[in-house]
Amino acid sequence: MFDGQVALVTGGTRGIGAAIATTLARDGVRVAAGYSRGKDQADALRAKLEADGGQVSVHQGRVDDPADCERVVREVMERFGRIDFLVNNAGITVDKTVRKMSFDDWHNVLNVNLFGAFAMTKAVLEHMLERGSGRIVNISSVIGETGNVGQANYAASKAGLFGFTKSLALETARKGITVNVVAPGFIATEMVSAMPQTALDSVIEKIPQRRLGKPEEVARVVKFLLEDESSYITGAVYTINGGLDM
User: Fold this and answer.
1) Active site residues
2) pLDDT of residue 192
3) Domain 6-185+216-236 falls in which CATH fold?
4) Which residue, among 131, 140, 172, has the nearest Cα to 5 in the 3D structure?
5) Distance CA 217, CA 186 (A)
């Protein structure tokens, strides 16, 4: 399906990002997984995927630092010689009500989740334009569509990815590049598992399918959007939330 193409996945060593990296590597994509912390976890994922026959590299850096983004892209280019796919998955939460939220709480989440996608896209885009092809997938969230108590910063950052994606899709539609959004609901990751059990039970009760999603279910949609056969899809939003928001 994929013939030695290269994917850069930010936040690609844990949670949804690790599932995306794993799914792509097992289908023949050469994967560069970015991470900001957790070197041991990153190295373990790389070793596991290489043992399965994948070609994988890991790159430490902050997506909210444009210099780091440019350095990571240079490292990937030096290793693999090209970047066909960019998956902007890196994200953080700092949950507080607006009344209690500090300006730093606001800026830190917006900088990683929204500005980080912009900065990494800027670092990759010229290469894709020169080659006349590319796929960009931004990982948003159902919270960007519905909002959530205590997550105004997170909701704003994830909602911003919708507008960013659609604008970039229009700018690149004639240049061989597609840009789409995947918006997961509540997925069984470390981030969600850290919620208090009572809160988690309450969330599951609201999901029509009465369960959390699996990271692999998100990865499957990302892979679909990267395939050659998906070249007519751009500016689209794919929701994966068990019916939580329709």
Assistant:
1) 154
2) 82
3) Rossmann fold (3.40.50)
4) 131
5) 12
The answer to whether 173 and 127 have CB atoms below 8 angstroms apart is no
Q: What angle do CA 157, 12, 176 make, to 5 degrees?
A: 75
Cα angle, residue 181 at apex, residues 179 and 186 outer, rounded to 5°:
160
Inter-residue contact 95 to 156 (CB < 8 Å): no
Q: What is the pTM assigned to this prediction?
A: 0.97
Predicted local confidence at residue 141, as pLDDT? 98
Can you give the residue ranges of every domain in the chain?
6-185+216-236
Q: Which of 32, 30, 35 is nearest to 57 (CA)?
A: 32
Predicted confidence at residue 36, as pLDDT, reads 97
The mean pLDDT values, 10 residues at a time, for the chain of 246 residues are 93 98 97 97 97 97 98 98 98 97 98 98 98 98 96 98 98 98 94 83 94 97 98 98 95
pLDDT of residue 62: 98
CA dihedral 24, 18, 123, 133 (to 10 degrees): 20
- Residues 196, 203: Cα–Cα separation, whole Å: 11
User: Using CA atoms, how far apart are residues 151 and 127, in angstroms rounded to an integer?
Assistant: 35
Fill in the DSSP letter of residue 173.
Answer: G
Closest CA to 140 of 11, 238, 216: 238
